[in-house]
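Could you please consider the sequence and fold following this short note?
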Amino acid sequence: MKLAEVCVRRPVFGVMLISFLVTLGIFSYRELGVDLFPRAEPATVSVYVTLPGASPEEIVASVVLPLEDAISTVSGLDEVNVWAFEGTARIICTFVLERNIEGAAQDIREKVAGAMNHLPPGVLPPVVAKVDPDSDPILTVLAAGPMSRRELTEIADKQVRRALQTIPGVGEISLNGGQRREIRLLINGERLTAHNLSVLDVRQAVQSENIEAPGGRVVHGAEELGLRTLGRVTSAEQFADVIIASRGGAPIRIRDVAEVEDGAEELRSWSLLHGKDVVSIEVRRQTGTNTVWVAEAVKQRLAGLRSEVPGGVELVVVRDISEFIKASVNSLIEHLILGSLLASLVVLLFIRNWRAVLIAGLAIPTSIIATFTLMRYMDFTLNNMTLLALTLAVGIVIDDAIIVLENIFRFLEEKGMERRRAAVEATREIGLAVMATTLSLVIIFLPIAFMTATYCQTSTSTSTAF
């Protein structure tokens, strides 16, 4: 073993080599991400389609079935799940493990685009996206206060959500249980019929009036001015003044056939805290970012926002996945350290030499710390799987150290060799055997690297929710 011989004959070189690897490992450890599980990218694509006002039965009959017929021809498709609700449907397409996610998503987009001619005219453009396993919320914050749900929604949206979106690493922030502002038109059917109008006429008038459109540009001498059509309606009074049609030269406005009410949208989700109405704010991180760092940054920003929101408003964190991640990772690190200490005690019990214990004890942390450099290069994170692998590697490292030390002691006691020569000769004698033992363990655990989480089943099924 040339490396062992060089390190024995040049101890300063050996110490500097180990110090170099440990230093790289320490700095790499500071940059490693922390997560619960390794990031996986299953070949799963979702199709979200909307038909406003349609019942679940109509969604299935006129939207889902044509899309399923088109999607079922994609190669490598393993499973299709459908959730149909009022006005919307979601189709989840799962592919076999061998299928590339980019190619699968592109094939789904092409099939959905080709099936658009078979869908009802009122269908909005379908949204095709890859399913991101990192899209689950990492933090849930509740905004509670003595004001109405609509006012809480405005505070959660305008102050909290916009402030949290500026934090690096934060992806999407969604609100649940809130009520946004909504202008309601309470149409009087008798008045509408008397003016020979329909609900579609009212809808078309509102859509055509409540719009801002570009007006082109005007060139005046050396100046060029841009034009805009400012037609956005902002108040209930302005909605009431919108002209629907003209009868006998007199304009018919919305106030003539309907009552305009400045209220809140229909409540479709509900959030409660101790029996009081609250607004739930769910924070999602960007793909590949450190969950713990993002959660800590969000909580620090929330601490500053508590003094900026109106009096009486409370921001309560009710769900924080980073706490479980930190507890899980700290538990594995504790087991890793405990395993190293117990392994060193076993060496002391059988060899009964403090120098041997010190050498074996140093072999464990230096080997593990140096591994962090490779983990950083391979873009791994500190999670349950990688820390469990490091815990298992403690036994392998201590085994190799014990075997080499025991053989060196044999050369010292039985053959009476000088220490440096005994270290070189003993390492050279069993170096190949130790390497073969380590490689055999690597081969045994190698198939685990190709394991992946998947929801694959052997049949394709469709489930419809009403």
Summary: Confidence is low (pLDDT under 50) at residues 452-466. Residues 321-351 form the longest helix (31 residues). The CA atoms of residues 292 and 322 lie 5 Å apart.
